[in-house]
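A further point concerns the way the authors explain their paired sequence and structure data. Each protein is reduced to its one-letter sequence and a matching series of backbone shape codes. An entry of this sort, consisting of the sequence and the corresponding backbone structure tokens, reads as follows:
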Amino acid sequence: MTDPILTALLASLDDKRGVALVTVIAAAGPYQASQGRRALVWRDQPPLGDLGLGELDARVLTDAAAVLSGKQHRTLDYSQEMGATLRVFVEVQRQPPHLVIVGAGHIAVPLASLGSLCGFTVTVLDDRPQFANRQRFAQADQVLAAPLRETVHAMLTDGRLDKDSYIVLVTRGHQYDIDCLLEVLDAPLAYIGMIGSQRRVSAVFQLLNQEQGIPPEKFSRIYAPIGLDIGARTPAEIAVCIMAEMINVLRSGPARSLAAARRVRDEQRLLRVTV
């Protein structure tokens, strides 16, 4: 006999959707019959399953949905307030990290392939349909031919960009990179990387500070120049150094980013100015 909970859980994992398995792990008194019962909660659809807790079911599943949003396993204990033993374990199956490549040029093609190979969900965005298409990005999960800044803004607004998102700005022109950077600068993303030389990036951040009043410390979280220093030259090699940096961030690795040298130089320049 097919278990609908297990079937739906496996389908969510196959579809790379975030889901939480809710299990009653301890129950006594009026809740004793519920021990071992399970349900599933998602962020974008109604729960599946009945924990057998009567009117308390809705509250527990709502609390479990909040745990899913936090993306960390958690035990929920209702024993003290309910006057009987009731503990629920919420096991979160997180969505894979989401790589958003803004710009569909020569670096984006190998980067999208590497991202998919490394288990990221990959979205490619460019405003040129001749570049942003399935023929060039067969391994990407989503290819968007749409305005850059407006689409990035929309992705932030509707929750498609979050703390599991890694955004790489490699558009055809530095102004497009800057426009998109301004959209995500304050967003709680895992990684923001922007292509450009040490001198170009420092000059851009200095200009944004002077003309738009953006505090210099806000730029410290930007990985620019992008990637790890491996001497990369070709588009494929640059894609490797970008992917390596994102994995380094994902796994809290020890590797030194190209951006680290830029941060030191910018801090020294600011120190000289203030002195």
